[in-house]
Every structure is written in C-alpha cells, then in structure tokens.
Amino acid sequence: MSSRTTTNRTLLNNLLQETGDSGKLSWEDVEFPPKHNPEWISKVLINGVEYGEARGATKNQARENAAGRAVEAIRKDRAEKAGGK
Predict the structure, then answer these.
(1) pLDDT tens readout for residues 13-55
(2) Is the Transport keyword given for this protein (predicted)?
(3) Residue 51 neighbours by CB distance under 10 Å
(4) Which of 39, 66, 75, 76 might form a disulfide with 54, Cβ 3.0–4.6 angstroms?
(5) Does the residue 66 lie in any domain?
(6) What is the CATH number of the domain that holds 64?
C-alpha cells in the first residue's frame, strides 16, 4: 500500500475528528476458527452504536472493511441531515 493511499480507518478518524467524536470510537472483533485459516468479523461502534460490520482474512482487513462501511453510513447520515430529511 502506498503511503499516499488514504485508508478507510483514516477517513473514519478524520470524519469523527470533525465532530469531536473520535474519542467515542471502539471496535468489536471476533475471530472464527480454524486457527490456521481464520476469518475475522469487526464492528465499528461510535458511542456504543454500530455503524459498520465487515469480514476479513485478518483483523486489520476486517477493521479496514468495517471502517469503509462506517464512513459510508456517516456520510449518508450527514447528507440526509444537511438535506433537511
């Protein structure tokens, strides 16, 4: 990965910093067997509310995927609020 590539986790942290919510971010990670070829499921929680869940072959990959879903959800929320919905 290039150092110029912005990761989903970076985007998520940036969005949360804009609203002062970065301290409210937490993760739930679960590893499923077998140990030699596990699958991870990660959830992004913001102030205890789930904003994204995803799977990955590694914990980092699952977190990155979940962060991408959370970024989409936050942007959608903000667009709806800005549109007066």
Answers:
(1) 999 999 899 899 999 999 999 888 899 999 999 999 999 999 9
(2) no
(3) 20
(4) 66
(5) yes
(6) 3.30.160.20
CB neighbour list of residue 20: distance below 8 Å, 6 or more residues apart: none
Name every residue whose Cβ is closer than 8 Å to that of residue 24 and which is 6 or more positions away in sequence. 16, 46, 47
How far, in Å, CA of 38 to CA of 30, rounded? 10
User: Pairing mode, if any, of strands 25-32 and 49-56?
Assistant: unpaired
Asked whether residue 2 carries a pLDDT value surpassing 80, the answer given is no
Beta strands in the chain (DSSP E): 25-32, 39-46, 49-56
Residue 69 in any domain: the answer is yes
Number of domain units in the chain? 1
CA of residue 81 relative to chain centroid, distance: 21
* 41 part of a folded domain: yes
Is residue 19 situated within a structural domain?
no
